[in-house]
Amino acid sequence: MLAIRYATRETRASDLYANHTTYGEPDRDVRMDYYFWLLRGNGRTILVDTGFTPEVGDARGRTTLCALPEALARLSVEPADVGTVIVTHGHYDHTGHVGLFPRAEIVISDRELAFWTGPYARRTQFAHAVEAADIDTLTRLDAAGRVTRIRDRHQAAPGVDLIEVGGHTPGQLIALVDGEDGQVLLASDAVHYYEELDLDRPFAVFANLTGMYRGFDTVRELGGAVVAGHDPAVLTRFTPWDRADPGFAVRVG
Fold this sequence. Notes:
By secondary structure, the protein is α/β, with parallel strands linked by helices. It is built from 9 helices and 14 strands.
């Protein structure tokens, strides 16, 4: 099981945390890394999220380090090898290549897809976080019968359980995965940074603030090795896949 860093950017704490001034501390520089996750074993190849395309990254001021197709090639994974794509939520940095996988079942929260294809998704404070073309692709795949829409809890494969926590988006998912050394919790954007859990500090983008706090509680209760969704510390908490290039990917379970 790998966490693959495909992009990065430099930002400020005041841009990352909701109402940052309420904490009474100075602003600071923060790096935000962008990941997708790859699960292989028992004859299965599962992808958790699909990043953004370089074109979208450029338009949004993000630096693409290794676009998802190139990263998969480096890992000897062909798009046709992927049997399941789990979309943890609909934001642009998780859906950019969702149509790339010709044989994959696409798994997403029913609440999530319903929201992003509904009327409130067009409002600016929601719409800025998605790419319309990605949502159109998900809609087309759904119409073709390739999307599995889930609620609450779902076993995507043996040892891979998805839990709908909401908060950041209406149907934000996390994944509990049986790793070689114990349970791994792929938090995606239920936990962008570890200090969100450590300091009980919500991210700036949310659909439901109470839901985000509840998601923190759920992650704490489930335990295991938590893999945050955007924290550079993921690269130092886990073992590099390639010691000559420790910034590319790490083994998380």
